[in-house]
Every structure is written in structure tokens, then in C-alpha cells.
Amino acid sequence: xxxxxxxxxxxxxxxxxxxxxxxxxxxxxxxxxxxxxxxxxxxxxxxxxxxxxxxxxxxxxxxxxxxxxxxxxxxxxxxxxxxxxxxxxxxxxxxxxxxxxxxxxxxxxxxxxxxxxxxxxxxxxxxxxxxxxxxxxxxxxxxxxxxxxxxxxxxxxxxxxxxxxxxxxxxxxxxxxxxxxxxxxxxxxxxxxxxxxxxxxxxxxxxxxxxxxxxxxxxxxxxxxxxxxxxxxxxxxxxxxxxxxxxxxxxxxxxxxxxxxxxxxxxxxxxxxxxxxxxxxxxxxxxxxxxxxxxxxxxxxxxxxxxxxxxxxxxxxxxxxxxxxxxxxxxxxxxxxxxxxxxxxxxxxxxxxxxxxxxxxxxxxxxxxxxxxxxxxxxxxxxxxxxxxxxxxxxxxxxxxxxxxxxxxxxxxxxxxxxxxxxxxxxxxxxxxxxxxxxxxxxxxxxxxxxxxxxxxxxxxxxxxxxxxxxxxxxxxxxxxxxxx
Length: 485
Fold this sequence. Notes:
The protein has 15 helices and 19 strands. It is of the alpha/beta class. It folds into two domains: 2-153, Leucine Aminopeptidase, subunit E, domain 1 (3-Layer(aba) Sandwich); 160-483, Zn peptidases (Aminopeptidase, 3-Layer(aba) Sandwich), CATH 3.40.630.10. The strands form four sheets. An eight-stranded mixed beta sheet has the order 7-8-10-9-13-17-14-15, with helices on both faces. Strand 14 (374-378), helix 12 (381-394) and strand 15 (398-400) form a beta-alpha-beta unit.
């Protein structure tokens, strides 16, 4: 559904069709009496008295041409709950082919900073659809008219939320693309197009990667007819030499598992194994669009893990960019090989203030946390706490998991410096994170977010309708807003 939002100074309330009003959590409709006719008030009052008030939203059909949507607001409502109200509103009315609604901001009873901006933000996030490949597309149009003298949105906040939505949607678009379209070669072409937003893009192809010695990353992609790449995306929002914030993403555009082949029913969704990179790209686009006052760099490793006569074998030993050697016991533990080179490169080249990597890294994190929390592993308490609090604000939750030197023993190899999987059993997500930590060479504050359970949802969530979620873009943007701008 297409959405058009208009902002108007004044409209005659009683003549409006499809009026959206707000009230308190007890649905005290005396608060909205001034905005509707006496007969409408009596009708709604009778229905409210006969209803169980366990919902946030009621729709009252007054006639074939008019309805009133009544939304309750709790005291001290949190911003993510406001966004959820906007999403719920969209879900309840989006079935109509052509709709027009009038949102009265004067009826917002509890003054909450940026209430209407957050409400519209949730509505728009929920409205996302990926229908690019459907021959019959919906032509539905939703007109939202926002009016009133109180609680009016600011132009600055609207632009800021628009940038965040565009970054989130860009990440969702990338994850939603099928593997035959968004392979590494195509991905790099799309990243080049971001230059128009003021981002500096540098692409390292296989020739450059071989010269640099990124054999861990190259080994993953060597079975594919497509290229393997490392791409850096820089945003310089302040004119100084301050250390950038660094975000690193796993970009396995399709993951067969290699010779450690995945079962068929687990392979069909492996187009989203590049979701970590998509989050980084979406975040960087958002920062550029809203002209964030920071220096930041995004680094993504783009490969395709395929089976062929040239593919990596279980038991191969590769030398990483760091100089450390890795015995590849399982070719389906490939994301950590990509990130190993990308992390060391990012730390060495950019000397960042901190590094956050994102990856759909392990199925074990889904066993641990399901689709409610992403796993957080970190060498820095301050950064961890900042990330957790940022996640709570936007309801993209994180749960900190352990790192400990004793886990290192489980990935020590007899034949190389380390092996890429723990074959003793257990602690699958932790040993993967412990593996990555070995490639942080200069004690840079670092956090690893395992988003395997959060990047894609078959059933949908509060702010998405199923499919790619864009999880992480809003979280990291909140981290930056709260602590680094």
C-alpha cells in the first residue's frame, strides 16, 4: 500500500470522514466530546460501555462514509509503544483499496515528546512490502492527514525519521532479494550508487584481496562463479580527525553450506545470510541522509558460499589477513571466516573508536534466544551497556552472552593456529564469538551481534509484516544519537 502523509493547520472536525482521535487508557470519551457530534458521542459511549476495554484501538462504523478510530494512550507511554500503536493502526485499516484518515493531534492527552512522529514512524515501518517480483501489485493508497494546533511534528524530526525509515527499508530490500539477483557482483553495483548520498565507497575485488592476504574471506567464495569483495563505506560528518565508529557486516549472499552441505529445508532461506551486511549498509545510508554529525565507516565482506570443483574443502588450512592460520573443519561455519579478515582490516586501516559487527552467524543463538533477543558478545562493558539500552529504547533487544578464555581451548587446532568450529560440542554461539575475538588485535572496544534469530521473520512482528526485519539499523542509530553525536 502506498502512503501519503499531509500536514494541515486546521480542518473542521465534525465534517470529517474517518477521524482518528486519542483518549486515555480507560477510554474516557468525554475527552473527545468537542471533536464529534452529540449523536456520535452517544453512540460511541454506549458501545464503549458494552465493550471489554482490553484493546488499544477501537473502530466505530458510523455510516458507510464515516468511521471514528479511537486509540488509548497510557500514562508515561514509551516511544516504542507509541510506534507499536501506529503499526497497529495501520494493520487494522490497510485492507481498504483507497482510504483517507484524519489524525487529530489536539486529542493527544498526554504530552509526550515527538508523539505524532513516533506514531507515524511505526505506521510506516509496518507498511513495508516487498512485492517487486509479483506480476499483480496492489494499488491501494492510504492518505493520512495530520492536523491540530498541539503536538505538531517538527520538520527536523520528520526528516530524521524519514532517513531512518529509508535506511531500514533499504536493508529490508537487500535481504529480500533472491540469491540469483543479489549476488556479490550485483551487490557491489548497488553500493556504488550510494555515492550520490555523500558516502565514500571503495571496493576491493579478488585481485586486491589476494594482494592484501585476505585468504579467509576468499576461501569462502572460491567455489562460486561470482566474485568476492570487501567494500568500505565512509561517512565523514564532522570536519576533524576524530576516530570513526566502525560497523562490520557479514555478507554471504547465498549459503549452501559448501561441502558441509545444509539440508534442503534450511537452505531456501539462506538468501538472508547477508543480513548483517544489509544492516550496515542501511545504517550508513541513514547517517548520510540525516547528515549525522559523526565520522563512521561500514565494512562489508561479500561472498557466495557454493559447491564446485574449486570450492573450499573441510580440512583446508588458510592464512588470514591477520597472519593467523585457520583449519576449516566445517565449510558451513563460513561467516566467521569472512568477518575475521574484515575485522582485522577495519581495525588496522581505520583505527576506530569501537567496532560493532553484525552477522546471522549461528543457529545456536536461535536455540538460546529464539526471535526475541539478538546475542551480544563483547570485550567492553561500556559499549555493551550502551548497546543494550539503545536496543531497549527501540525494542530491538539484546542479551549479553559470555566470553571467556576457557572457551578458546575448544577452537584450538592441532594443525593450525585455530579451527573454525568446536567439535567437542556445545557453546556454538560463544565459540564463534570467541573465534572472532582472536582477530581484534589492538584491544579495540568491540561487540559482536549474532542476529540469526532477528533478521528474518516468517510470521511478522510489531513493526514488520513478515520477511526481512531490518533489525539493527534503528538500534545502532539510537546508539549513535545517545552517545556519539
